[in-house]
Predict the structure.
Amino acid sequence: MVELPDELRNRPPRRPGQAPSATLTLDAYLRLKAELEELTTVGRARIAERIKAAREHGDIRENAEYDAAKNEQGLMEARIRRLRDLLRDPEIVEAPVEAEAAGPGMLVTVKPLDDEDEDEETYLLAEHAEERSPGARTVTTSSPLGSALLGRRAGDEVAVEAPGGSFRYRVVSLRPHTGS
């Protein structure tokens, strides 16, 4: 079992029927926690300085720099709220050490079959879109591609019906995600 940080290890147990705020690996939890800390300290100070400087340019009603800074502030505050929601009471899961079939926490390399010129693509199959792996795009288990990949093995072919059309892939390889 993975060693949890104190704030997770010492939290009260969930009430019956209470769902976790997110399902994350420890790597994702720590990355998101660091991002939240950065946004609430350095990010807020940086935006406050931009707003202050823009105000000094005069009338804020027709000040594009002020509008841009306020818009950035709104987006940053929305991200802060989202991160706080995710980190409130997450379920921390371990990435698999090995597996023969695709599942959450696996890096799945596929080859598109509809276009011969297409290179192989590697995806991190994850429970949550906030998971990351260098060199791989994240695809959630609830997305069309992610759900089509679940349970597949190397050599399997999958067909995906997505908003952009129908796509076919061959699973080239599977390997566990070992963190960033």
